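User: Run a structure prediction on this.
Assistant: Running it now.
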Amino acid sequence: MAVNYGSKRVVVGAHYGLRDWLSQRITGALMALFTIIVLAQLLLTSGPIGYDKWAGIFASQWMKVLTFAVIAGLLYHVWVGMRDVWMDYVQPVGIRLALQIFTIVWLVGCAGWAIQVLWRV
């Protein structure tokens, strides 16, 4: 008769713990800083808020680069979060893989759309 002490542990994932936690915090801080910069630019300019004001804020090259860096950070932030949700809550491997592929395709599409909007490709 075999005696089973404790429980069998099933380890999944590749031990991303600290790296993912840190990347979530860094990308979150980057997005918060960007929000403060955009709000400051809105509050420091006078007149009604319309298309011209928004176009003026995002017209300079440094703002386009900063905006795309924030979008890239946002996309990575979303990927880490969604990957963890899929890994934690979707048990069938085939469905989990399909959801992860769909997420990647969706995020790459969002990145392409962001480039098009920022630089009018």
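The chain has four helices and no strands.
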